[in-house]
Amino acid sequence: MRSRALAAAALLAVAFTGPLWADVAALPKGVVRVTSVEGITEYQLANGLHVLLFPDSSKPTITVNITYLVGSRHEQYGETGMAHLLEHLMFKGSPKHTNVPQELTSHGSRPNGTTWWDRTNYYETFQASDENFEWALDLEADRMLNSFIAKKDLDSEMTVVRNEFELGENEPRAILEERTMSTAFLWHNYGHSTIGARSDIERVPIERLQAFYKTYYQPDNAVLLVAGRFDEAKALAKIAAHFGPLPKPTRALPHTYTEEPTQDGERSVTLRRVGDVQAVCAAYHTPAGSHADSAAVDVLVEVLADTPAGRLHKTLVEAKKASEVSGNQFNLREAGMLVFGAQVRQDMSLDEARDILLQTIEGTAAKPPTKEEVERARASLLKSVELTLNRSDSVGLNLSEWIAMGDWRLFFVNRDRLKTLTTEDVQRVAVAYLKPSNRTLGLFVPTAKPDRAEIPASPDVAALLKDYKGEQAKAQAESFDASPGNIEARTKRLTLPGGARVALLPKKTRGGAVVASITLRFGDEASLMNRSSAAALAAQMLVRGTARHTRQQIRDEFDRLKARVGVFGGATQAVASIETVSETLPDVLKLVAEILHEPSFPSDEFETLRQEGLAQAEEARSDPQAMAFTAYQRYMSPFPKGDVRYVESVEEQIEELKGAKLEDVKAFHRDFYGASNAQLALVGDFDADAVGRLLGELFGAWKSPRPFRRVPSVYKDIAPKAVVLEAPDKANAVFIAGVNLPLRDDDPDYPALVLGNFMIGGGFLNSRLAVRLRQKEGISYGVGSQLSAHPLDPSGSFLTFAIFAPENAGRLEAGFKEELDRVFAQGFAEDEVKEAKGGWLQSRDVSRAQDSRMASTLATYLYLDRTLAWDADLDKKVGALTPGQVLEALRRHLDTKKITQVKAGDFAKSVAKGGGQTP
């Protein structure tokens, strides 16, 4: 539920419909209109609550997001992690909503809560309806002031949060970044990770949590945002009805006042833990996210850390001194941080990588960014802005970051600054902040003449935004019905001359957004023998250069064309995913066709890819999750080595990569790639006839060199086994338990098994396993189950998973077994089944509203010869299920005595500390 990973906030989607009411007197009592920018209108209630309304009829969903202006920055001594711990307790209920996870699941929502340094937010995305909207508003209004925040809930949830803390302790690179931040900030709370100190998590008194809640969880410290399909006037009236009665607090909000002093010399930190890949990290203080320099620093990050154009990529990765580089600026309410890093394999020199990293970063002062570098970075950043402006369902989640920085309109100001900044601006911020005395990384070096970076004061945001209007907003899209029947009626299918099949779903979208999915299928069981490694490398090499474009030129073209394109694949298929806009769609499709058809396989890029793969594989050696899942898959899928279904060990992956030859990769593409057995699907704003003709030109004559015959999925009856893997020095362990099933998705019992699995380990913290192992006992932060059934072969599986502290292995296994035994002995209550059906069906509606998901589904259904009628039929069957039918199906197909279990963790240390017996 928390935002632990140190990552920059994504941008957001907006549109403009004009003012809600021309006559202020028409507003609900106690509501005043504040401002409106590009389709988002701000209001304020008499109790101080700020409300942002963003109507968007193009998707049949609503997102309700509430941002509280409190985060780990506001914690006091002994309270680190308290804001995040309180976030967890907010899901434990209030007088009118006693079982929040159950309600979130039964309404088919996609919910969560996140905590960061300056804010905490809670959101739920659900199918647009008056009933769902009323429920969401009532939930957030009630838990704003009336959440239980009870001692009994703290006792169980504390161990869940501690388990989450332990999960992060498994990631040496993330911990290195935390240590660097804590060293860079001597006094400010930005130096504390949001997850907090383990001792504070375990010991914080409930009274301090309750006081924290009563102080900050109030209407005058919150911003409510509603985005999606709703009537504006009705929505504001409902909001006023639910939140208006909440009293305005009489207390004065406390304000933090600690300022980090100017850093006066280099600082360093060294982390020593078990691991297989080295890392180096360098951090520099930067101004607040609202400061004018922030946009220029974002461009500077792209210039230095982008892949493959960035300077660090060229001096480290291409020079084979590191396997991967990264860069990120934390835009915060107060002065933040700029962090660069590099991943270095064991056979590379960490000292040499460190020196090159610092020379490249701090050498920017003497080697200014070029106009080409700045324009490339600007194009990439503005492309992301424009594409994100087409996705209203993530508005509230992303606006939370800008609200936390001082005002939601800062998002637009930052975009404007990106458009107008100069190469000189980027050079100026490089000189101002990328200096040794402002760096946290290395050794202490005395100097007679300190050269310190003076960080500007945070701007007066109110003055900065006075009379700000923004740009002209985008036009509204059509109100699209995402039901199976309407999708099917709107979809056009055709077959290209060469055999490729196409599905086209045209509709008006915000900003002319279009998504596409292209799947090339190839080979058969015999011809693909011993070629899996070459196949995987071939797919990854496609975007690294063609006969007409270098890797960088491809990247630049996609930025210019406002396109996000991903290409991935393996031994039996390659897939290209596309997100772009209507006016550039033809050129994007042409470039994607070139990438798939005419790769050049540059030798230098191949060597870079090998190094990246080796670093990833070596890191997996000691990661409990990778260890457990690899061991489980190898045991449950026992195919001979060389078969495309064979699961390699980590050591085998490393050996394959070390011995990989570029000629084998080229040969695989030459022998198998073609469009004779391709499926292409597009969803969005385009002319179906024109696109159909273009696809025929691009893919119609591209014949596959060899015949395609799908590799069957074979059911294996595997004897149950218990596997324990030691992962030294890892605070978090992983548990996997499952069984193979002779099951196809047209089996009469499949709908009942789907619903049964949803109640066992699906939903949002409301499944049997989640309630037992997380909600009640606090053993696991992440726990759930999965059911799979092949659409063409009788081969499926049932899988459960959990993370936990190694000393809790016995309790976890006992709880897992007891809950499954209870299901098979007693089944499910009628109310439980009714609520599960409602939640599952609504979640299906939400999924169908996602254009990228629909494009992928349409492409897959072309291969399976299915239409959306299959979805409608499955929904109907699930909706008609009874508790008895679900229980009978589970008993027919699942036998708990046949379940295989795999655990990976530091169990030896747990025993040594007296944490329990070896599992």
CATH domain fold name of the domain at 484-699: Cytochrome Bc1 Complex, Chain A, domain 1
Write the CATH homologous superfamily of the domain at 484-699. Metalloenzyme, LuxS/M16 peptidase-like
Helix count equals 33
Query: Largest sheet at a glance?
Result: 7 strands, mixed
Distance between the termini: 29 Å
If classified by CATH, what would the architecture of the domain at 484-699 be?
A: 2-Layer Sandwich
Beta-strand content:
15-25%
Classify the secondary structure makeup into a structural class: alpha+beta
Instruction: Please count the beta strands (DSSP E, at least 2 residues each).
Output: 23
Oligomeric status: single chain
Helix content: 40-55%
CATH first level of the domain at 484-699:
Alpha Beta
The shape is globular
Produce the secondary structure layout.
Blueprint: E1 31-37, E2 40-45, E3 50-55, E4 61-68, H1 82-89, H2 100-106, E5 110-115, E6 120-127, H3 130-146, H4 151-168, H5 172-184, H6 198-203, H7 206-216, E7 222-228, H8 232-243, E8 267-268, E9 277-286, H9 293-305, H10 311-317, E10 324-330, E11 336-345, H11 350-362, H12 371-388, H13 395-405, H14 410-420, H15 423-433, E12 439-441, H16 461-464, H17 484-490, E13 492-495, E14 501-506, E15 513-521, H18 532-541, H19 551-560, E16 564-569, E17 573-581, H20 585-597, H21 603-620, H22 624-636, H23 650-659, H24 662-672, E18 678-684, H25 688-699, E19 722-726, E20 733-741, H26 750-761, H27 768-776, E21 783-789, E22 796-804, H28 809-826, H29 830-848, H30 851-864, H31 869-879, H32 883-893, E23 900-905, H33 907-912
Parallel strand pairs: 3-7, 8-12, 14-18, 19-23
Antiparallel strand pairs: 1-2, 2-3, 4-6, 4-7, 5-6, 9-11, 9-12, 10-11, 13-14, 15-17, 15-18, 16-17, 20-22, 20-23, 21-22
Helix pairs in contact: 2-29, 3-8, 9-12, 9-14, 9-15, 10-11, 18-24, 20-25, 21-23, 26-31, 26-32, 27-28
